[in-house]
Design brief:
Chain lengths: 362, 171
């Protein structure tokens, strides 16, 4: 039986150029989109909580409002504890920046002298190294506290992102409904296919990422406090936030925490303990959290994963690193869906039959 | 006072839809909360008169539940002209085999009047099976019964067309 009204999908050049133009447009305005993308991520994070109460028949707008009140109270309580601790660590860092500067300068001079004495062409290597790495680094180092303070304008996102998320949470369902209604009727199933696949993937990814970031941040803070390392909160925050980029959290935590420990205790044992702490956190993340989190997440081949990070970083900087993996996963879903359609459309009109009697399939 | 508070907090449309799902045989035995969770997995769409939901040969990917209006199922006859299979009203569901595998639909479905339909897409069923196994088992049990009934019907047709049974009769 011939499929009525069924046509093979055809490649459309105007559609192709429209997609390319749209991508280029997003590339040009990506800086403006950051709060929206972060808001989207926040909406994904809290949506399961709203769904939980919505299943009992409660109005969405009331649940969203109540949730925002609870989150605001939680943030106020956390800020009450964290903000003074963070400010005291920053002022301590600003006060000690000169000491660290001198200590690094001294350590580097000793290293240089040692290198020049022991290695053939040592003096030449030292001079090259000074010109290319050491001098620019030492010029920037005293400015580090002001760089950190310069990040504070980013805190405006703390207010902007929940504001945008609020509207996303309130209207997302209606917008989705409108989009489905606007779809050509026979394409609804296909659109739902794509939307549901991406929705499930992104939801799991964003929630997993945030759980990992919070777990790494909390474990780092507890561990650094136990080891008695200065700036425990700052290092833990850095480690937690940077863990949005896979593997970066543990690496940065070990590096910065190790340096702080070295200058604080003046022994090699202290940084080794910090490195061991972050190795332990990374292993615990891999053994305890990842199996639970990545149960439904899409898996990328390590090479694709690396390629996505490199392309994302090159095109969009740090933000690109953050969103490289989910973007790659979405592309993979779209390819998988397209392939699924291709195989479905090209398969022969296979019928379920039993000894020649067709089994109805509707 | 309590009633006013309830009216203020509760989404009436959601509750109506939940009650509608409760009346369907495929979701029998589920609690209000489970029906609420199930309802969240559905998408809804209104089809205008004459608008096709799917055509014969389209790849099936969703289960359709008629919430209101009427839907006609037709199948091409040997002469290529459509033959009416059924006319479905509120509470009817069809396309459930698409939840099990992606095969071309063997009939077309067209809205006979403005009709509101609920759609359950396959990946949502997977989500239900994973997150709410009790709901998933209820749906799957019904699908298994439906398959069993069709298999019986097919084997009965076979017996009646050949005059005697060939091989074992599916239980």
């Amino acid at each position: 039986m011939q499929a009525a009204g069924r046509r093979a999908p055809r490649f459309s050049w105007p559609a192709f150029f429209a997609v390319i133009a749209l991508l280029y447009f997003f590339y040009k305005i990506h800086a403006v989109l950051i709060p929206f993308v972060l808001s989207f991520a926040l909406a994904y994070l809290v949506d399961p909580i709203i769904h939980h109460f919505e299943a009992d028949g409660l109005r969405r707008e009331h649940i969203v409002l109540a949730l925002y009140c609870v989150i605001a109270a939680g943030i106020a309580m956390a800020a009450n504890f964290l903000l003074p601790a963070m400010m005291s660590e920053l002022s301590l860092l600003q006060g000690r920046a000169g000491i660290y500067y001198a200590a690094i300068q001294h350590a580097f001079s000793v290293f240089q002298a040692d290198l020049a004495r022991r290695m053939p062409f040592g003096q030449y290597i030292v001079e090259k190294m000074s010109m290319r790495m050491y001098n620019p680094l030492m010029e920037q180092l005293p400015k580090l506290p002001s760089y950190i303070l310069g990040l504070f304008p980013l805190f405006s996102l703390i207010f902007l992102v929940p504001f945008i998320s609020f509207f996303m949470l309130m209207d997302a369902e209606r917008l989705m409904q409108d989009a489905i209604q606007a779809c050509p009727s026979r394409r609804v199933e296909q659109v739902l296919h794509i939307v549901d696949e991406i929705d499930a993937l992104l939801g799991n990814y964003v929630r997993g990422l945030l759980i990992v970031a919070m777990a790494i941040g909390a474990a780092s803070y507890a561990g650094l406090l136990l080891l008695g390392v200065d700036y425990a909160l700052g290092v833990a925050t850095l480690s937690g936030v940077s863990s949005f980029v896979p593997y970066l959290g543990a690496i940065l935590g070990a590096l910065v925490g190790g340096l702080v420990a070295f200058f604080q205790f003046h022994t090699f044992a202290a940084p080794m303990k910090v490195i061991a702490l972050f190795c332990g956190i990374r292993l615990a993340d891999e053994a305890l959290l990842q199996p639970f989190i990545s149960r439904h997440a899409m898996h990328l081949h390590p090479l694709l994963f690396l390629l996505a990070l490199m392309v994302g970083g090159k095109l969009f900087g740090f933000v690109g690193l953050l969103f490289a993996v989910p973007a790659a996963c979405i592309i993979k879903v779209l390819i998988a869906v397209a392939w699924d359609y291709h195989s479905s459309q090209t398969q022969t009109s296979r019928r379920l039959t039993l000894n020649g009697v067709e089994v109805p399939y509707i | 006072m309590l009633q006013k508070l309830r009216n203020f907090l509760v989404d009436k449309r959601f509750v109506q839809k939940r009650e509608f799902l409760k009346s369907l045989s495929i979701f029998r035995g589920l609690s209000n909360r489970e029906l609420g969770q199930l309802l969240q997995m559905f998408h809804s769409r209104t089809y205008h008169e004459g608008e096709p939901l799917f055509l014969e040969g389209d790849i099936g990917r969703a289960l359709f539940v008629v919430e209101s209006g009427r839907v006609e199922l037709t199948k091409s006859g040997p002469d290529g002209r459509p033959q009416k299979l059924a006319e479905l009203g509120p509470g009817s569901f069809f396309g459930e085999m698409a939840l099990l595998e992606h095969l071309p639909r063997s009939a077309s479905a067209v809205a006979m009047q403005e009709s509101a339909l609920l759609l359950l897409y396959r990946s949502r069923l997977d989500e239900i099976l994973d997150s709410y196994p009790h709901i998933g088992i209820a749906i799957m049990t019904h699908l298994a019964r439906l398959l069993s009934a069709r298999l019986r019907r097919a084997s009965e047709s076979l017996v009646s067309s050949s005059g005697e049974p060939r091989g074992s009769t599916p239980a």
